[in-house]
Amino acid sequence: MAQSLFLSTNLSPSRYIQGEEQWLGCFALKTKPSHLKLSSGCRIRANAVCNAGFKPVEIPRQWYNLIADLSVKPPPSLHPKTFEPVKPEDLSPLFPDELIKQEASTDQFIDIPEEVLNVYSLWRPTPLIRAKRLEKLLDTPARIYYKYEGVSPAGSHKPNTAVPQIWYNAQQGVKNVVTETGAGQWGCSLAFACSLFGLNCEVWQVRASYDQKPYRKLMMQTWGAKVHPSPSTLTEAGRKILLLDPSSPGSLGIAISEAVEVAATDADTKYCLGSVLNHVLLHQTVIGEECIKQMEAIGETPDIIIGCTGGGSNFAGLSFPFIREKLNGKINPLIRAVEPTACPSLTKGVYAYDYGDTAGMTPLMKMHTLGHDFIPDPIHAGGLRYHGMAPLISHVYELGYMEAIAIPQTECFQGAIQFARSEGIIPAPEPTHAIAATIKEALHCRETGESKVILMAMCGHGHFDLPAYDKYLQGAMVDLSFAEEKVKASLARIPQLVSRGEANV
Predict the structure, then answer these.
(1) CB count, 10 Å around CB of 45?
(2) Are the C-beta atoms of residues 184 and 205 closer than 8 Å to each other?
């Protein structure tokens, strides 16, 4: 493949593609804040779309807020003690002021700070790639594209929100942040962002992942973070869980409880969340905004958009800008969320107010939930283990703008092997769910003869998830049956709330 390098002083790298030739862009930062320590050398990266004659696509300069375009607004979050709608001052112990404003914003677009754009330019725009070899393998008339977020320093989409979250904290003079992480992608991304802006980072990692993925822990430590297995003895929430179950594998809900407890009791510390909340989904919309322009540049319109869902941030990041276009009557794609059968909050959960954490310290959110103390089986290979779904995605699902399916993990890894052996990229366990659903749809197109355009969210690589691949390749991976009784017991413990109108009947 012929390659040529160009120097550019623009914010976004120069990018040109002609036929099967791929031209790489090399750039220097236009501005460099004094507190941001970056290499002054040029960085080289590929931005690939396998089509000729398209114009360069720049990094979006605004995040998109879907709430502005919804005629029916999502229900408010509620205070965990008073059950009244959360006020900005209720969130101030956890988040900086600007993120609190973004959480409740109804503005359609929010400007991305220049300093954040400068960091984004380390890896953005991310590639939109046509999976021609996978199409050939499947012998399908469908055209498959994937938006690949694995080119970020942390290897996933998570820095899209980690960077602005830490920047806003730094602007407010915050010195310490705490968070939780499941598979480790979010913890790595936050540690990376903290290393750029000089904040201290402390991470509670779900015990099952802490043990299974030591290199994620080492990535966090390399970027300067402290990492604890969760549940831990460092917090009251962790100690209570260990008292009940000394061998607890942990869960995201437990890890959130531990991190929130530390932030809520320390005036010098704020909390960061990698998914679920509105401001997190907002930041991720750089994915979809870029992708719309990239698809327009190659003259394609998606018929189907597919993404994996755990908390929902990568799915929202790709799909929300396309939902805007759908609401405006410009396109009409089918939008499909894919979740694991081991933790199927959309397809098996209930739409109700529930806590975002196990200890019940967070606000109550109206979402699809399996119950705040639901703990997925630790042998599930992916990081999609959160008990609930992002409230905004849950709301969009209830409005009928998207659909959801659940796929067992052996089928997901079968698809991942097909993808890796045709496209070359080893996917993280999370997007294997989207890959499996995409393969299903592509094979259906082979049966019907339809040449649909399938757009898939490819949210990260699996270089630190190879033990899961080893388990699959050795034939040791098993599908997990959905534990109806376990979920019923968990759902029985969610708060039973009624509206004032219902109470007066």
Answers:
(1) 17
(2) yes
